[in-house]
Structure formats: C-alpha cells, structure tokens
Amino acid sequence: MKNSNRTIFVDNPLLNQLKMYRIWCEKIMLNYGKRWMETDYVLTSERFGTPVSEKAVSNPIKHTLRIRNEIYFSHSFRHPQAKIMLSKGIPLQTIAERLRYTSLMILSLYTHSSIKPRSQISEILQ
User: Fold this and answer.
1) Residue pLDDT tens, the chain, 126 long
2) Which of 8, 23, 70, 126 measures 20 to 30 Å from 37, CA to CA?
3) Non-local CB neighbours of 92 within 8 Å, separated by 6+ positions
C-alpha cells in the first residue's frame, strides 16, 4: 500500500517494551542459529527475522473478535486513536499526518464524537 510505512513518536514505556521485544527476538534468532537481520520493522518472524505480513498480525485479531461476535477491519484502531487525540486537543493537522488522512477527512469522520453537548457550548462561550 502506498504511504503505508511511517515513522511515529511513542512514549518511553512503549519504547522500553519494544526494546525488551527486540532482545527477545535476538534470543529467538540465536536459537535458530541465525544472527539478527537489521531492519526498520518492529514485528519480525521468529524463524527468519524478516518482516511479518499484515495477515500474520490481523488474522489472530480477526479470529479473536470473530469468537466474540465483533467485527474487525484493518483500520479499526484508527477511530479510537483519532478520538483520543481530538479529545486531548491535538492539532487537526498533526492527527491527519499521523493517520495519513486529510484534515477534512478527520473532521468528517471523527469530530461528531468529540463535539460538546449544546448545554456546554453556552458555558464555554461565556
């Protein structure tokens, strides 16, 4: 998919988890008698150290949600992320860049859930 690879900033707790994951991956690779293949990817296969496919990530999620009678789409994680960023006052352009949407798409898809109730509008404007 065009523009599907991107660099995003993460917080220190997640960064620490990713470092621990990387150490675990290196140990797994040594068990197979291979050295770690240096890549820019976060998720790599245990046996080969190559990037995992999208299906390797999405199929277990789909299976779990199917058992729970829930629907999954590969973009399902965008909506809560966008709502949280909007509610925290992150600039619209920043959200759009992170999600690879236009600002107009963000407004039309996500602002309906972050709009203050009418009763609060008059309080805010005073």
Assistant:
1) 455 667 778 889 988 998 898 888 778 777 777 666 667 777 777 666 677 887 887 788 888 878 888 776 666 677 788 888 888 888 988 988 888 888 888 887 776 655 555 566 666 666
2) 8
3) 86, 103, 106, 107
